[in-house]
Design a protein that fits this description.
This protein has about 350 residues and is of the alpha/beta class. The protein has 11 helices and 12 strands. Helix content is about 45%, strand content about 15%.
Length: about 350
């Protein structure tokens, strides 16, 4: 996986990392440089071993090791000054059969490396440009650890396209994991505005912040809200005492991870089966799951209990949540969004994810 420039470093333009599998550019450059030097040294060794078959037209003396290196250099680069030339027949034959193929291989390696670097950088810039132009109403997940990955998996199980999910993380390994999972990603500090602008944060419909530190989460929330006043911002914090600060920073919803885990522990202690049901609904992919969907036309006018195959636990009407026991939620209306508990749907892996890439230059 190619390593990206950290987006938080000033003066460095961070490009989106699209799913692909490739070697590190530094390792590839080092490999090609070593191969070019090997070709040069091999040619030098061949000339020096057969030095008596060559003549130095300028100095008039024999060909030394430095002369062999010089001859190999000007020969490999096709400069060919003609001051050192093979005079024996077998030396000229050796030039035709051995040195010339080495020269061609050297030039192919040199030109190929240059073209490939230019092509890769150009195609990456073009891919980044096209990606940013088409990215609208997407979901930005800041932090691709255990919480962030679980949030992405839930979004995908609920039908969110992987092409509409973007990951931002400071660690190259997390970016590599996101690419492997079929997601575009940026590496860098999400508190920096320039990186968030590159991620088209102003056009995102949802932002999920799942960082390890609460203070970083608060600063990131402030920055995100300044760039996008309308997106839904969901933030995970460790400590409950930081919830008011996160809400004041602009979070639409705050999840306290430590308190949630503690509540599950308490429910499991009261009744293992109760804890099992709660975990069942939270984990998804098996057993029960919580889902939100639009009401079907044939469901309009019916009580929530009449919905087949699902249990309605809430209705969202005109942006207001009405729980199942609310008198105003006695009937389903057209345009309602239903929050239901249903049998978990098996995860669907799209063809692009199976192939492991939607990268234009992969």
């Amino acid at each position: 996986m190619a390593k990206l420039e950290p987006g938080g470093r000033e003066g460095v333009l961070s490009l989106v990392s699209l799913p692909r599998i490739s070697l590190s550019p530094f390792k590839e450059l080092a490999r090609r440089t070593a191969l070019a030097l090997l070709i040069l040294m091999l040619n030098t060794f061949i000339v020096w071993l057969d030095r008596d078959a060559y003549i130095d037209n300028t100095a008039g003396d024999g060909v030394q090791l430095l002369d062999a290196l010089y001859y190999s250099t000007v020969t490999m680069t096709t400069t060919g000054y003609g001051d050192i030339t093979p005079v024996a027949a077998h030396a000229r034959l050796m030039n035709v059969l051995v040195v010339t193929p080495l020269r061609i291989g050297f030039l192919v390696l040199l030109v190929g490396t240059t073209i490939e670097v230019l092509t890769k950088e150009g195609s990456r810039s073009i891919a980044d440009l096209f990606w940013r132009r088409k990215m609208r109403n997407h979901v930005v997940v800041i932090g691709y650890g255990t919480k962030g990955r679980s949030a992405v998996n839930t979004l995908r199980r609920q039908g969110e396209s992987p092409e509409k999910i973007l990951v931002i993380d400071q660690h190259a390994s997390a970016v590599a994991d996101a690419n492997f999972d079929g997601l575009a990603a940026f590496q860098g500090d999400a508190t920096r505005r320039e990186l968030l602008r590159r991620a088209e944060i102003s056009k995102a419909k949802q932002v999920i912040i799942s960082l390890d530190r609460d203070d970083t989460a608060i600063l990131t929330t402030l920055t995100v809200r300044q760039l996008n006043p309308t997106a839904g911002v969901v933030v995970a914090v460790r400590e409950h005492e930081n919830v008011p600060l996160v809400r004041q920073s602009g979070a639409s919803s705050v999840v306290t991870s430590s308190e949630t885990v503690g509540r599950l522990l308490g429910l499991s202690a009261l009744g293992p089966e109760l804890g099992t049901i709660m975990q069942d609904m939270l984990t998804g992919a098996e057993g029960l799951e919580v889902h939100q969907r639009l009401a079907e036309p044939h469901e309009a006018g019916q009580p929530p209990s009449a919905v087949q195959g699902e249990r309605v636990i809430g209705i969202i009407r005109n942006g207001t949540l009405r729980r199942f026991y609310d008198q105003t939620a006695a009937r389903v209306e057209i345009g309602d969004e239903l929050i239901v508990v249903r049998r978990a749907q098996p995860p669907v892996r799209d063809a692009k994810h199976i192939l492991g890439a939607f990268n234009p230059d992969s």
